[in-house]
Amino acid sequence: MKSKVFEITITGKYYSLLLPEEIVLPFLEKNLRRVKVMASFKRKELSFHGAIQKRSGSYYMMFGKRYQKELGVLPNDYFQMQFFEDTSKYGVEMPEELEAVLLSDYEANEIFESFTVGKKRGIIYAILGYKNPQTRIDKSILICENLKKGVRKNPELLKSF
After folding, report:
1. Would you say the C-alpha torsion 25, 48, 129, 75 has a positive or negative sign?
2. 21 found inside a domain
3. 111 and 75 in one domain?
4. 18 & 76 share domain
5. Residue-number span of the structural domain to which 107 is assigned
6. Is residue 63 helix, strand or coil?
7. Which of 10, 61, 63, 128 sits at a 20 to 30 Å CA gap from 107?
8. Cα distance between residue 10 and residue 63, in whole Å
9. SS3 state at 87
10. Left if phi > 0, otherwise alpha if psi is -120 to 50, otherwise beta: which for 56?
11. CA-CA distance, 145 to 87, in Å (whole number)?
């Protein structure tokens, strides 16, 4: 499933995108609140996972400074977007480093899989925040060790005890 390409601009002080209802409703009718997004602006393209949110009768999606900088858009710039059905397991791409560590540690993997999808996504995003592959491996191992020690709060999962 995919939407047509549409034009959009950043609105509000929270870097959100006011989404056209005709784009959003087909996804919501299939209970798809999380989508894969392709955004383009002046020959630059960006792909990310996003959540369709409803506030005050309108539909929004967050579009933070990191995405704005990567795409090169400023508030009041119009750029193109297209939504696709998100077929990923967690609503975000799993970093291969975390996946490998979880697959090698049955106990930590069982604990990880027992969490809500949102909590799993939070852990995945924490690992995605590191650019260096070795750092991702080290932090993935640390998270697994902390999970087995009973640590459950995301900020504490990345701390050495």
Report:
1. negative
2. yes
3. no
4. yes
5. 96-157
6. coil
7. 128
8. 8
9. coil
10. left
11. 29
